[in-house]
Design a protein that fits this description.
Elements lengths: L3 E6 L6 H13 L2 E7 L10 H11 L6 E6 L3 H7 L4 E6 L2 H17 L4 E6 L9 H9 L10 H16 L4
The structure holds adenosine-5'-diphosphate.
Length: 167
């Protein structure tokens, strides 16, 4: 029986920390679906389409990893794609409390769902999408933290903002 895992997140944008988790999950499971959440309540910086397109390009070389978008409840989406495993990354104790709470809620909603935590690699424990967005907003160098395709997307945004006189 093939085991498919879902790795959900906002990925606004995907960082090398996320890539690391996706790569490690791809070695543990037969198939991994990186599920990009619409996350409308978070008002993401990049559109859902941009986040999906970037993640697709970034993870292209991982053969058993695909990228999809989803809205609504994660457990419903997981059932739809035939997965009972949710992968999440853990950076620090600060992630732990929230992540365990969400895992509990998801198990309550669907008792067959298991959440598997992958500990962040030491060098990425400080890294988050919001830190990357903040550095990029100040025109800092984020090349160590994200794939070049993300840098292109930030540049496009900056140019558009300049054009519209909002920069
Ligand atoms: P969400 O809005 O669902 O928290 P994120 O895109 O911020 O989505 O994160 C998706 C998942 O990736 C979460 O489980 C988060 O803890 C994990 N994650 C984020 N950054 C890193 C990192 N640097 N290393 C490992 N895991 C990470």
């Amino acid at each position: 029986m093939r085991v498919t895992a879902v790795y959900p997140g906002t990925f606004d944008p995907m960082t090398v920390g996320h890539i690391d988790v996706a790569r490690r999950a791809s070695r543990m499971f037969d198939d991994v679906i990186v599920a990009v959440a619409a996350s409308t309540s978070k008002s993401p910086f990049f559109s859902l389409e941009e986040r999906v397109d970037m993640a697709t390009t970034i993870l292209e070389e991982l053969e058993n990893v695909t990228v999809q978008s989803f809205g609504g409840l994660l457990v419903d989406y997981a059932a739809e794609v035939g997965s009972k495993v949710i992968v999440r990354g853990l950076r620090a104790i600060s992630d732990f409390e929230y992540e365990v709470q969400i895992a509990g809620v998801n198990r309550h909603l669907d008792p067959e769902i298991e959440t598997v935590f992958i500990a962040a690699s030491q060098e990425y424990t400080f890294l988050s999408s919001s830190i990357v967005r903040e550095i990029a907003r100040m025109h800092g160098d984020v090349s160590e933290f994200v794939h070049p395709v993300v840098i292109e997307s930030f540049s496009r945004r900056h140019h558009r903002a300049l054009h519209e006189g909002n920069a």
